[in-house]
User: Fold this.
Amino acid sequence: MSLISFQKLCKTFDDGTPALEGIDLEVDQGELLAIVGPSGCGKTTLLRILAGLDNPTSGNITISGKNLDSIEPKNRDLSMVFQNYALFPHLSVFENMAFGLQAQKRPKHEIQSAVEQVAKRLDLLELIGRKPAQISGGQRQRVALGRLLVRNPSIRLLDEPLSNLDAHLRSSMRRELALLHQENPCTTLFVTHDQVEAMTLGQRICVMKNGQISQVGTPTEIYDSPDNQFVAQFFGSPPINLFRGEIVDGSHSTPSFRWNDQSISLPPNLSPPLTGKICLGLRPEHLIPIPTGQTKKQQDWSVQLERIENLGDAQIFHLSDHSSCLNLRTNREQNFPPGQITIRPSWEKALWFDHDSGNRL
Ligand code: ATP
Assistant:
């Protein structure tokens, strides 16, 4: 049975702003669930309602089968790290981190050792005597995270806990959070804007858009089998290439895909889901540059290579094709001069979406 269950949860603020529109979501015991989506899609509101800081307009939440309304916020054994840290300005880093355990009247030596252990892991030992005003934004963010880890609640709610850290610290904190979760698999709902963070930390990812859930799945499911164009575009860097066109069913030959002023034959073994208007999605790594001299196949197409970006371990080809731009990613170093080149899609990886709804076919 799932630990937390959101059922048809809706929230409209007093000024009429709709924030959540019918959220159905199950979170398992010990799961680390990443919640991602663009700004304003309702991620924080979802966590705040679970933490008891806001009320839903309708719908229901249960924890271990018990209605949330029947559990007093102080008895919910969950704690939240807020986007704005919410540290007590008059207390030191140590006192901020110790606050939860002190409120539970735990023995002094236990508090001391718990705070020191967490401060060490988060690299905060040297700052333990300072007040929040005397440390940087990134350090405050780690103190807020530390305060939650010291309390060790059964449910952790993290609202963008790594957003103010530089790239290096962010990656080491990500590793630390993953390790902490491995050692103590505590149910965690983790809000982030960052697709890499969601992919690398989340055991499952919940993708939200406009107060609704677009898809819930493992990182592999979300990347390889997105339910719709929105999810497909949200994950992947550079983003997926999308071509809006139509499939023309050649009764005497193989079907072809037409878009803008272009047309390419589809491989005979590929059965596109439909004929007519459609949107084709090809990830940058599913386009292969064909070295000059190799025979061009019917399913290849010619594009203009504008620039190659070298990332060290990969190359990004910036291409243009009549009126649209597209990206190709290759792990091998390739020497192509700018100009006309031939590319070949890995057709078996192609994703097809409904032209109007954007849902995957
Ligand atoms: P971000 O990633 O920018 O933090 P979010 O996905 O967490 O965004 P929420 O903070 O949950 O989004 O906000 C959802 C919607 O509700 C937004 O349109 C926001 O402007 C609105 N909203 C949030 N709090 C209030 C409030 N107290 N009164 C009115 N509208 C609100």
Summary: DSSP finds eight helices and 20 strands in the chain. The first helix runs from residue 43 to 50.
